[in-house]
């Protein structure tokens, strides 16, 4: 049953993915962890998604209009116009990557880095050796040298921890010319010699289901390594509610949850440093973004108030804590910034996403939707922000779905019905289950061909619409409970199917987000047609096909495709920015305080909107 797949290798990341024939290069890049910049939403008009394709086919009109004849001859094409039809190698320039260094940190016109403003900095110091006539204490000697060179003019005395002073004793006697590592009014370290000490930052997105981390060079903002893994807390609960219950009701539950995530962070930091070949103690700062519950658990803060009306977080402003407290075995004086939160269920990951996308500064009405274990929605309009969260449930992560699985090898991640059923399986092997994008695709395609009604009811095999393709009709079976299931594959040992209950889970998850969008629009006095862009965040978001997401109502069905833009892991992008820049941290604080938190459950219209949103809008056409 499997459809032909091709291997696409992306450079410079070196990542390779197997994708179904006809998959767009944008989607293949997302599959490989590279989210492309798509301001026009894939309409072929902005020219931002440029890539160089090895042995490219003849250009289409949009590409002829975008590139010079020389560039076309070199293989430059628009990723949104290219479909995979063979094994290929694709070079993605940094300027085409969403959230890449050039978008976040540099001026588009000059290419100059203008927002690299780390909380730590190095200053050159030249000192006289102490003598019997000059018995100035070490710390004062460094302070005087810094003042003399103008490298530091702080009020009061330069501070230092006892541990720093202890390290400085031998370092200083190794040479009285060197580099001082400073944060605010404190000395963190001193290194003798001519050469500036390498200095790095770590950024983490602490998701309910997955953890992602990046290592950044503080000298130029470049990303040196990136890693991700499952959040080990999933063993203690699928979603934030069950994690809070575990923390509150189980003896040592909070400790257990905290230790699970900090142990993973410890390993990820070691892996990042190892991959980049750098010494862990050259990491001098870090930033963490996560939803409100995850940030509380990471910091070992009792999350109980988040489970009780009125769901108040313990902290709102960002925290600055010793990096070691969060599991980072890096420089002993390094501190970690934990993002501010907007409310009990609109957390630092959303603030980081708003920071990365500059949502508050956007001129037109823009929706930011983070589809994950929870669904967060923010509407920006006229300089104001409305933020809400929905209990989208973990259906999009494959949980609570009978054959659900995460988007790993063997997961059906793409479904096309074009006279017959075609499946895209991660890794190209036999189907092992359905991941979130596969579930959305399957229901979207069943809706499109009339096999699924707007009410989400799977028809009995004997009551199928007459016009269904044979390859689709034969897959409707009566299940053991007297209901209907749709069988995607069954090789005798493993059966992958969709049940009525699975469809209901999807209706709940998509309906909650759609109803949340309706409430925010109403509060802002807007119609959906006035929304200029919908930014879909979250690693999972990159793999959702717009048509099918609109058919099931997850994304507004009324909007044209070019207004829907996938932006990948915006939380990690924001965390990276905050790791590199104190100014970005200050901006995050403003965003968090400025946003109006809308509690959907207390909105009198929400129940009605939710009930209406449970109905699949359908759609026709491609
Ligand atoms: Fe491809 Fe705009 S031209 S996304």
Please state the overall shape, judged from the principal axes of the Cα atoms.
Answer: globular
Radius of gyration: 26 Å
Unreliable residue runs: 101-114
Please estimate the helix content: 25-40%
What is the β-strand count? 27
Beginning-to-end CA distance, first to last residue: 22 Å
User: Strand content of the residues, in percent?
Assistant: 15-25%
Strand order in the sheet with the most strands: 12-11-10-13-15-14
Profile the largest sheet: 6 strands, mixed
Q: Mean of residue pLDDT?
A: 88
Report the structural category.
alpha/beta
Output the number of helix runs: 17
Descriptive report:
- By secondary structure, the chain is α/β, with parallel strands linked by helices.
- Helix content is 28%, strand content 23%.
- It contains 17 helices and 27 strands.
- A six-stranded mixed β-sheet has the order 12-11-10-13-15-14, sandwiched between helices.
- Residues 101-114 have low confidence and may be disordered.
- The structure holds FE2/S2 (inorganic) cluster (FES).
- FE2/S2 (inorganic) cluster (FES) binds at residues 38, 40, 42-49, 78, 80.
Tell me briefly what this model is.
The chain is α/β, with parallel strands linked by helices and 622 residues long. The chain is built from 17 helices and 27 strands.
Structural features:
single chain, 622 residues, alpha/beta, 6-stranded mixed sheet, binds FE2/S2 (inorganic) cluster
Task: Compile the SSE list and pairings.
Layout: E1 5-11, E2 16-20, H1 25-31, E3 50-53, H2 61-66, H3 69-73, E4 76-78, E5 88-91, H4 101-104, E6 120-126, H5 138-149, E7 159-160, H6 162-173, E8 177-183, E9 186-192, E10 200-206, E11 210-217, E12 223-230, H7 240-249, H8 253-276, E13 283-290, H9 292-298, E14 319-322, E15 335-338, H10 348-357, E16 366-371, E17 375-381, E18 384-390, E19 411-417, E20 421-425, E21 433-434, H11 436-448, H12 470-473, E22 476-478, E23 484-490, E24 495-499, H13 500-524, E25 533-537, H14 546-551, E26 564-568, H15 570-580, H16 582-594, E27 596-597, H17 606-613
Helix pairs in contact: 7-8, 10-15, 10-16, 13-17, 15-16
The chain binds FE2/S2 (inorganic) cluster.
The site of FE2/S2 (inorganic) cluster has 12 residues, from loops.
């Amino acid at each position: 049953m499997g459809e032909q797949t091709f291997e696409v290798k992306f450079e410079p990341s070196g990542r390779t993915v197997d994708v179904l024939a006809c998959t767009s290069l944008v989607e293949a890049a997302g599959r490989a962890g590279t989210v492309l910049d798509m301001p026009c939403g894939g309409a072929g008009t902005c020219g931002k998604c440029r890539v160089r394709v090895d042995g490219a086919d003849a250009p289409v009109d949009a590409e002829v209009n975008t590139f010079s004849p020389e560039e076309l001859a070199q293989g430059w094409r628009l990723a949104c116009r290219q479909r995979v039809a063979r094994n290929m190698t694709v070079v993605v320039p940094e300027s085409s990557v969403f959230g890449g260094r050039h978008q976040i940190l540099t001026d588009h016109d000059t290419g100059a880095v203008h927002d690299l403003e780390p909380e730590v900095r190095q200053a050159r110091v030249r000192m006289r050796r102490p003598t019997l006539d000059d018995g100035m204490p070490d710390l004062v000697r460094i302070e005087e040298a810094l003042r003399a060179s103008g490298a530091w003019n702080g009020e009061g005395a330069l501070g230092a921890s006892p541990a720093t002073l202890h390290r400085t004793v031998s370092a200083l006697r190794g040479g009285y010319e060197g580099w001082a590592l400073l944060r605010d009014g404190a000395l963190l370290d001193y290194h003798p010699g001519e050469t500036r000490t390498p200095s790095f930052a770590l950024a983490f997105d602490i998701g309910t289901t997955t953890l992602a981390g990046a290592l950044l060079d503080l000298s130029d903002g470049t990303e040196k390594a990136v890693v991700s893994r499952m959040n080990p807390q999933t063993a203690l609960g699928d979603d934030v509610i069950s994690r809070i219950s575990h923390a509150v009701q189980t003896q040592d539950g909070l400790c257990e949850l905290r230790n699970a995530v900090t142990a993973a962070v410890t390993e990820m930091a070691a892996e990042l440093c190892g991959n980049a070949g750098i010494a862990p103690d050259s990491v001098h700062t870090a930033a963490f973004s996560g939803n409100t519950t995850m940030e509380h658990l990471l910091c070992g803060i009792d999350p109980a108030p988040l489970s009780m009306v009125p769901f108040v977080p313990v902290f709102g402003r960002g925290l600055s804590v010793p990096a070691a407290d969060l599991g980072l075995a890096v420089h002993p004086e390094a501190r970690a910034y934990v993002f501010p939160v907007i409310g009990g269920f609109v957390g630092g990951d959303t603030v980081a996403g708003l920071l990365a996308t500059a949502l508050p500064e956007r001129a037109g009405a823009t929706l930011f939707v983070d589809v994950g274990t929870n669904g967060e929605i923010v509407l920006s309009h006229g300089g104001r922000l409305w933020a809400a969260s929905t209990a989208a449930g973990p259906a999009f992560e494959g949980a609570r779905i009978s054959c659900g699985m995460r988007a790993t090898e063997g997961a059906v991640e793409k479904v096309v019905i074009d006279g017959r059923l075609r499946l895209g399986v991660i890794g190209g092997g036999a189907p092992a289950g359905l991941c979130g994008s596969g579930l959305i695709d399957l229901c979207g395609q069943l809706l499109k061909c009339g096999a699924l009604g707007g009410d989400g009811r799977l028809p009995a095999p004997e009551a199928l619409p007459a016009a269904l393709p044979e390859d689709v009709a034969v897959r409707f079976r009566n299940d053991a409970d007297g209901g209907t299931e749709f069988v995607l594959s069954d090789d005798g040992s493993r059966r992958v199917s969709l049940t009525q209950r699975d469809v209901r889970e999807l209706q709940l998850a998509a309906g909650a987000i759609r109803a949340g969008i309706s409430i925010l629009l109403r509060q802002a006095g807007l119609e959906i047609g006035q929304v200029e862009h919908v930014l879909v965040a979250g690693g999972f978001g990159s793999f959702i096909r717009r048509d099918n997401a609109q058919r099931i109502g997850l994304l507004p069905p009324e909007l044209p495709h070019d207004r829907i833009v996938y932006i990948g892991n915006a939380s990690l992008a924001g965390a990276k920015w905050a790791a590199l820049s104190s100014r970005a941290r200050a901006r995050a604080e403003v965003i968090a305080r400025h946003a109006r938190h809308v509690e959907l459950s207390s909105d009198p219209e929400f129940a009605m909107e939710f009930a209406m949103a449970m109905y699949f809008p359908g759609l026709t056409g491609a």
